[in-house]
Amino acid sequence: MITYDKKSWKIHNERVFILSAAIHYFRLPRAEWNEVLDKAKAGGCNTIETYIPWNFHEMNEGEWDFSGDKDLAHFFQLCADKELYVIARPGPYICAEWDFGGFPWWLSTKKDIQYRSAQPAFLHYVDQYFDRVIPIIDEYQLTKNGTVIMVQVENEFQAYGKPDKPYMEYIRDGMKARGIDVPLVTCYGAVEGAVEFRNFWSHSKHAAAILDERFPDQPKGVMEFWIGWFEQWGGNKADQKTPEQLERECYQLLSNGFTAINYYMYFGGTNFDHWGGRTVGEQTLCTTTYDYDVAIDEYLQPTRKYEVLKRYHSFVKWLEPLFTDAEKVASDMKLPSDLKSERIASPYGEVIFIENNRNERIQSHVKHGYDQILFTIEANTVLPIVRNVKVGNHFTIKTLTGQTTGFDSNEAVIYHENGQRSSLVLQLDQKAEIHCPLPNRFETLEDGSIAFRLFHGSQPQTIQLLFKDGSSYSIEVVTRQSLEIHVPQLEKKTETNELTWESAEEPLSFLNGKVKESKKPLDFSSFGQFSGYLGYESEFYAEETHNTTIVFPRIEDPVMVFSNQQFVGKLSKLGAAEIEVPVKKGKNTLTCLVQNMGRFNYTQVMGEPKGISEPPALNGKYLPLRGEWQVEGTGARHHLSQIPSIEGRIGFLRTFENHGYDRAILVGEGVSRVTVNGNEGKILMECQTGWSRNSAVYGVADISGALKQGENVLDLDVQNISSIRRFDLYLFHDKEQIFDWKTKSFAELHEEKDWKTANCGDQQTIYPRWYKSHFTWNPDNGSIVKVRLNHLSKGCFWVNGECLGRYWNIGPQEDYKIPVSLLKDQNEIVIFDEEGYAPDDVVIHSYTPFVQSKKKQLVTVEAGSNE
């Protein structure tokens, strides 16, 4: 039912151009699935792709849930009902900026587990997962009256940098054994028996060359065409990929022979609850929004990228027989040196893609017989020129230099930038009466074809061809801008900013609740908790009142630190960190509060211990080590922010002094390998080949075994590295570590609280607090509801008992989605704020989307009237 050759995929023996929308069912409520699928189909997509996160369905070991918002079968059924094909990507690893890359948290409690490997212990749990999820996929395969046309084996495995052929074959064979008989696919997986895809945003020519060389008998596809990007707390807003750039890259895909495109993402959605992950690097914690700046935004509203793709899809659908049966051929076009061209041809016609890499518009021409046909190409764009394509029984398009949404049975639209001209040359199959209104012009060429000189102005024009047999054809000549009238605007309907709040303190008490005692602090998995908050407490004695530097040898989330119940600061550096703490003579209590900000979803060190996992130490020392480096044999000193070019294996050295300390922790970001006093202290790293994330390599290394008293020498491998963002050393005494810890869950909504009317203005101290209020809502208030948590610090919030995510007021996210399917007439919002900041300025907005027409109204006014 579904096959392929080197040109394209075939379904029921017909060639199909796969236009796939990545939509994660787990990033929006079930109540919104129907709408987002309808909009994807209306936008021209014929396929839906989704990852399947193992941890979403097995939150706790052996407890499976495929109901409600987790009803995968229902999602597949909706796709089938709407005649949308499906690409299923069940992993077991999915990345996806999702906690732990889709692995369940409890997997990290299994002793010596080796993720993504052929280790029997790991495969045992994978089999249990596949026994649950593969039968659901199986039921909805195209071969069994469903619409699943491909299933992906693992995910980006070669990018993991750890080849394991038996593992990939085991995953492949496990899918087949459980009934999968549609084609298997991989992206950076390259397992025998699966069609290989690539993931990228630009440089499609390079990707095509790799696929042609390694997989010459397979169709070219991009599994993740990154048309937007995700955001991280404290980072920039990720809106750098413009709609204009998207259109350019889409045409690049066509010119290089790609016939399967999955837009990652098409709809991004939201990381509700604590599902957001952590990507490569130290401070790379994903925001609650996963909007991704793509075609359909977080609130299910089409964007300008939606309009770009909708036009592009119409163009592709029109020429689908051409694109899916095409060969790349030499261009026969002579162009100015500023322009490049790629040409693809098939029995159905051909398209020449003109590429302009200059920062200005260029006007040139193509040859048609003895005539020169003009074209205009905008700066930094690709223009498709269509040639020799037959349209029904009316005519053949000999040359088209404007852009089009396609020529159907009796009408077409040709568009270009406002004020520009394009050309259309037609070979008529029968005589026709031509109505060509000004400012367009036409003439008959020597070969008998009709050449139209089209002007794209503010006033649309329609060219009419009235044929001898009584049929007609309409061609509308418009501007690109006039087509972009369907992007909705938001009309604010209500603004709730005078909420009445109640507050309650979160006592940092370990006297009740689920408390575990241990020698060392327990990370989240060791404690037995997926995410949320953990508190840590221990006691130590001081011989005098003074300030001490406490070193935290291993932390993987920001930490709030309290000494004797007084807030003393927050640790924002991860891996290891230090803080100066006041202590009193005698017994002292050290208390810490930590929110799990997401496990690594992409790295070789997945399964890192979240929270605090090693005992802090008193009287430690911190040494920043980015300065004072020397190339061996020279006297010049360098900073790691600007590493000099080093040929061969010459050493890049730095020394540091150690007096009395016997423990040392190194934390680096951008570091690949470091040697300490001739012994290799391995900094955990990603092995990434050909990926742009190399500069984000991050790891923690205990180098205590190589530490010497006095001078110590570090030798850094900086081959192919231009800068290192962090390189810190933490020294402490083993005997001064603080042992005997209590660990307890905190910030739990269900625990009873002592609510009181909030006197927000009276709060002077930093201390964790809860806030609660109520607001009304009715459907007339709009289909979009957002909350802006102005002037709060960091925490999470709930609406009607559902956790809607983390918040952190360091940007770039400011607004948080409240799904309307969750709302009632009267609603409760509860906020946990780590620092207890007042919610006086919290605002809930409701909006109604509307489309503002750009068509101008002409009004006749009589002379002398007052209108």
Automatic annotation (TrEMBL):
Q: GO annotations under biological process?
A: carbohydrate metabolic process
Domain Glycoside hydrolase 35 catalytic stretches? 11-314
InterPro entries on file? BetaGal1-like_ABD1, BetaGal_gal-bd, Galactose-bd-like_sf, GH, Gly_Hdrlase_35_cat, Glycoside_Hdrlase_35
What are the residue boundaries of the Beta-galactosidase galactose-binding domain, all occurrences included?
768-826
- Where is the Beta-galactosidase 1-like first all-beta domain positioned along the sequence? 521-623
Q: Which GO terms describe its molecular function?
A: hydrolase activity, hydrolyzing O-glycosyl compounds
One Pfam annotation reads Glyco_hydro_35
Q: Which UniProt keywords apply?
A: Glycosidase, Hydrolase
Q: Does Hydrolase appear among the keywords?
A: yes
Q: Which PANTHER family match?
A: BETA-GALACTOSIDASE RELATED
Q: Would you identify the family this protein belongs to, as annotated?
A: Belongs to the glycosyl hydrolase 35 family.
Designated name of the protein: Beta-galactosidase
Q: Which organism is it from?
A: Neobacillus bataviensis LMG 21833
Lineage of the native species? Bacteria, Bacillati, Bacillota, Bacilli, Bacillales
